[in-house]
Amino acid sequence: MMVRLGQLAHARAGDKGDTTTLSVVARDPADYDRLRRTVTAERVEAHLCGDVAGRFTRFELPGLSALHFVGRGVLGSGVTTSLALDSHGKSLSSALLDLELPENG
Q1: Smallest Cα–Cα separation from 56: which of 85, 99, 86?
Q2: Nearest to 86 by CA among 10, 25, 15
Q3: Among 65, 77, 78, 71, CA closest to 96
Q4: What tens digit of pLDDT does each residue of 13-41 get?
Q5: Sign (positive/negative) of CA torsion 22, 47, 28, 7?
Q6: Secondary structure element (H or E) that encloses residue 30, with its range
Q7: Which residues, given as ranges, of the chain have pLDDT below 70?
Q8: What's the pTM?
Q9: Is 12 in a helix, a strand, or coil?
């Protein structure tokens, strides 16, 4: 059985040039360790592989019960010059919340 990331967390996003930032914040701080174990940079890249070409780096923010991902080279030559339909970080953060996690992660 799987659970959607969006059931355990909400997301915030930003973008500048070809870089996007995606933050995943646990709705309940008790779920932070589960997110830390299961939401890796590699899983984020694999989940968004159809939409992004760059690489993500993950930063842990335990005091905020959050994970922060910085994706470099993700938005091509930048949001304003991309031919992709709505390649903004906000779209990617919404897509990320569909990531399926093991129920007993």
Answers
A1: 99
A2: 15
A3: 71
A4: 888 777 888 999 999 999 999 999 999 99
A5: positive
A6: none
A7: 50-53, 75-90, 105
A8: 0.80
A9: strand
